[in-house]
Automatic annotation (TrEMBL):
Pfam families: CMD (PF02627). GO terms for molecular function: peroxiredoxin activity. This is Carboxymuconolactone decarboxylase-like domain-containing protein. InterPro entries: AhpD-like, AhpD_core, CMD-like. Gene3D superfamilies: AhpD-like (1.20.1290.10). Residues 45-107 form the Carboxymuconolactone decarboxylase-like domain. The lineage of its organism: Bacteria, Pseudomonadati, Pseudomonadota, Alphaproteobacteria, Rhodospirillales.
């Protein structure tokens, strides 16, 4: 059994220490997912770059959090569900929408619900056999380009879900008010 170390600015390269400093300035702390990636500067850089590009995608802040939380719920990743729920709160996104995604309930907004369902379909099918969900996604007002943006979000979040699962990331203190487990799932809504 491997124990993955949570790194800090003193235990990493100068380049990564600078990255950690930027994260501390932006977020107030270095989330554990970044701390565990600190041992591999190139992987950390790739993960941060993908996140940055996703933030500049055609999706709104609430749409990006729907994608990231939906992927994390589907992959049963408590760390990432809690983290993105916390980030949604900081961004003052609608609590009802975030709660619906966390519990697999139907989002009251049909467009956003089509995004949630399309995201889940991508996670469960590796992009195959999602014609009905893609059609619904497009018919609800999204574009083909936005479908590709959703795929980017699925990739990013799947990466961090895998890192969390493999390394058994402990929940960061700022995320603890948003603790999540699969017991919160609304099995009848799926």
């Amino acid at each position: 059994m491997t124990n993955y170390k949570l790194h800090n600015r003193e235990s990493v390269s100068t380049e990564t220490a600078n990255t950690f400093l930027v994260l501390e300035n932006q977020l107030g702390f270095v989330p554990n997912v970044f701390a565990v990636l600190g041992q591999n500067t190139h992987t950390l850089e790739a993960f941060l770059t993908m996140n940055e590009k996703f933030n500049f995608s055609s999706l709104t802040a609430v749409e990006r959090e729907i994608v990231q939380i939906a992927v994390s719920v589907e992959n049963e990743c408590p760390y990432c569900v809690a983290g993105h729920s916390a980030f949604a709160k900081v961004q003052e996104l609608d609590d009802k929408i975030i709660h619906a995604v966390r519990t697999e309930a139907i989002i009251d907004n049909p467009k956003l619900e089509s995004l949630r369902r399309f995201t889940i379909a991508l996670v469960n099918s590796a992009g195959r056999d999602v014609d009905d969900e893609l059609k619904n996604f497009i018919n609800s007002g999204y574009s083909e380009l936005q479908a590709i943006d959703v795929i980017l979000g699925v990739c990013i979040k799947t990466f961090s879900n895998l890192v969390s699962g493999l390394t058994k990331l402990p929940l960061d203190k700022p995320f603890t008010p948003f603790t999540w487990s699969s017991k919160y799932l609304n099995k009848s809504a799926a």
